[in-house]
Records
---
Amino acid sequence: MFFLTYLRHELRLRMRQAILIALGLAVGIGLVVTVTAASAGVENAQSSVLHGLYGIGTDITVTQAPHPGSHTGGAFSPGSTTQQVDELLNGQLSPLNISSVEAISRLRSVAAAAGGLTLTDMKLTIPSEGSLGPGGQPPTNLPAPTSFTVDGVDLAHLGLGPFGSGEISAGRTFAASDESSNVAVVDSNYATANKVTVGSTITIAQTRFTVIGIVRQPQGGGSADVYIPLARAQALGMGPGVSNLRNQVNTIYVAAASASAVPIVQAEIAKLLPSATVTTSGSLASAVSGSLATAASLISDFGRWLAIAVLIAAFAVASLLTMAAVARRVREFGALKALGWRSRRIIAQVMAESFIVGVVGAVLGIALGFGGAALVDVVAPPLSATVAQNPGSAPAQNTLFNGSGIQHQPAPGSTSTVIVHLVAPVTANALVLAVALAIAGALTAGAFGSWRAARLRPAEALSQVA
Amino acid sequence: MYTLTSVTRTYQNGSRTVRALQGVDLVIEDGEWLAVQGRTGSGKTTLLQILGGLDRPSMGTVNFDDRDLATLPETRLTEFRAAFVGFVFQTFNLLPTLSAIENVEAALVPRRVSSAERRARATQALEAVGLGDWARHLPSELSGGQQQRVGIARALVKEPKVLLADEPTGNLDGDTRDEILALLERLWHEHRFTLVLVTHDPSLAGRAQRVGVMSDGKLAVGPGA
């Protein structure tokens, strides 16, 4: 076929020019692939932060910020004797009624929903009036207040929520029959630090719990120190102005039917519970601080615009080079017209050349993209993400006694820092995008050039100075 | 074959209106050899392009075997060129990336002949101009005279009714010029196509049956030598 003969000869004898145009396209495409890969990497990192906090199976969490003005616990005033206070407090979040969990689980595209209660057990000693020093100074031998976080686990949905992502390293996990038993599973870090083993007893809200297991959370994970059955947490927990949290939860963990359903489910929950904070790995970005947040905004702002700008520049360069190349061949096209070649045939010839250049550009661009993504993997430092244990709320506070009286400060464990390694995956979508962009760019360039040349009257084309 | 009536061609060159042809009347018979002489810018090339359907007159009619090239739609004009007209250019206008034989074949592409027949006819045409051994060479590997021979083979491979040659020896040295001229003359005798040859070379014009002289867009035709 003459079409192919001509095409082959053109590309072979003008190879340097073709490769130059293809390279121009490839640089733009390569950057788009790299940025797409990096942003996919950040998305993956964000979702690993979410999973670190809420468990592998959790796609969405629902929490509700406390009403303004409410605060944790009551005020303690010294009495005639020393008082030992041990309370299980719900401070960080407003309770949600358990019926919300059922309502969410009935939504379409929701695979499962589980309620959880994230509480803080606080132990402190209130000195007696008599032991106070001059000016109300507490005695120096007063034990320091201690606190640890307690998570009420929905035993019907052990796979959902932070407990589900852990691994039992000793003892056993919860059974359905544990619902009203005073049993606890302890985080391995807490267990080590406090010399807790299976069979030990710990006290939560003045109630003795038997430790039945030790759970090891994946690196960065571990939102609670102690896990107990949800029903026990509801019975023992206290909120502002309430003595128990029956039928209440403060976090709802939701598994969507599929990853693509997450935004739909998010919107439906927001409609169902207008005052709640609905968090997904996507929306987590705004709740996260640390280098991951910086990387995310860097890629979404700077990276995306850089890619678009370079892509436009690459298209422009490819178009100009193609137009220049075609302009040099105007006499040639005039000669072909004199031979009786239709404009259509001439345009097809140039477009075919451009198409091949586009394919070469796509291949080179993808290679550059893989290189760029690999570079991101190598160069990107481990990213840290610091996030409130429950996004949408202020970190929990501890009450502290010292020389200047009662003070509040963020409780340990109320924020969580997760270290993630950024891996930029080149996805199939990115590859399809790259090929489409390269070919579209080359064809646009070819169309610009050939259209002009083919529309020129043959007499004019022939009179062009070569 | 050709009947031109009051053919005028004007075009804009910036703000200046150029009258390339001014009321040219001309009849060309089948198989005739007409030479057109004239100084640069006298309108010779414009006349040739109008005869070949590469350009259209601003006014007047250009009848070729009962079709008016002035009003023929663009696609029909393209078909007309593909079927009836062979061009030979001063600067050869060969396709630089195609070999000699592929350049000749390019003229048969719009004629929809099989690739085997195309190759056979192109080979024959190259042999007829004495370049049978150079078929695989690129234009850049050929001398000026050889390139023009390829140009002539390309123009004649489709056995056109008309051969339009615009200064075919303008870029060649003396000996080569005579060779090309002799070749054209021989082919004209063999094939009896209508030959319109534009030149400012009097020795070239001398061999034609009739000689026209263009001056300021007007044509005066007299008998040849």
---
Amino acid sequence: MKAWLWHHLDSLRFTLVRLARAPFSALLNIGVIGIALALPAGFYVVLANLQNSARALASEPQLSLFLALDATHADSAQIEARLKQHPGVRGFRYVPRDQALAELKEGTGLADVVDSLAQNPLPDAYIVDPRDSAPQALEALQAEFGRWPKIAHVQLDAAWARRLQAGLKLGRLAVAILTALFAFALIAVTFNTIRLQILTRRDEIEVARLIGATGAFIRRPFLYFGALQGLAGGAAAWAMLWFAIHLLNDGLSELSQLYGTRLELSQLSPGESAVLLIFSTGLGLLGSWLSVSQHLGRSEIQSAN
Amino acid sequence: MISFNRVSKRYPGGFEALRDVTLAIQPGEMVFVTGHSGAGKSTLLKLMAALERPTAGTVLVNGQNVGALRPSAIPFLRRNFGLIFQDHKLLFDRSVFDNVALPLHINGYSRGEAARRVRAALDKVGLLGREKARPIMLSGGEQQRLAIARAIVHRPAILLADEPTGNLDAAYASDLGELFTSFNQVGVTVIIATHDESFATGLKPRVISLRQGELAPSGGTPV
């Protein structure tokens, strides 16, 4: 067991030595892998940020139930009871008309206009959080609430939410396609690197085979190399991304000052960073495994001379 | 330990290197396989270490049928052997020490144990002072001894040497003979293929003669 562990560590050490011995080509490979990963990852970061700010603007679709102006306390109590029992309702909030007017006055800077009103034109309202935010479910709820007594109007900003959802879906698809393409590129780069290594180390492989090395023993250093190169490429992608976001945020903060809002791209979370590294390591491993089984997979028996 | 039963080997292209060879080698024997070049000496050795498979007949090593081994079992069979190749097959991109350590890596020895054994093997062949050298810096004879050190470092039960005297001079060949005899004296089965009849004379080994792929009646021992 100890010898086995030692051997693995030794393979790893030899791999590192080999990387260090050809630093230029190793750096180029790692750079190519890094760029190939940084592009889809960067796109993902932008998308994730967009999704976050969209959620802050209109996190989840809500339905506003406006009561008729002549609705009594008994009517609203009845509606409240029905909302409580309704299976499609996750929660709701009652906004009395006076409070709505006060919010309007504060929030929009229309105080003068509001003050000039002879009476409060706003109805009592319920803001309903639906359990299911799928567009069809929302429309069904809208229709159902509209049929209840003493409800004047049900408003659903479905079109906006739907457009945003469709846009984000398209973006996610684009990220998936980009990821697939660049993953292929990463595999191809690794495949080729390992192929060259196998060619240059043919003597060593042949001798090792002749004196009783197992297939696993021969494959292991190449697999380590592929995985390590993938990991380094992933780290390079992470660094490029970090730097790019950092630069963009500098620019964005100027821009957002002009607009009086705060715009900022957030960096990859630790979890996302881990996924990036695991993904790139896995692809490197896959590329080297494909290469190794392609170029070393031939018969175990080789003529000695 | 090794037995051939009516073994033939035909290479792709039709050349028949061995024809109907039957023989047995006991543990601890010292055997010379002689014959002209092309007589099948190398093929005989390759069949023992599963570097080739027989086209007919069975080769048994330690009771295992070599021709029927699964590919994954072949490496473990080969670890019973120390192989010395005609062209040495040294690795020129690493030191003498690392060349000898390779079989121990493959066999999974720990670092300390491996270093100890590598030095013991180098000492045995008289190369202890050269462990940091590259094989390219060694003379032909030293390269030969390096190849021997690599073959014996994991203490194989059977030592196979293909033309070990190669193009070495006669004085050196007799040193080599002594070296092989010393391995044989500690119980290693030694099998040497050579076209150099004089190499064998001083050592009084058993001789298996091959002639055009068949056992020659003169030197071949009946089984």
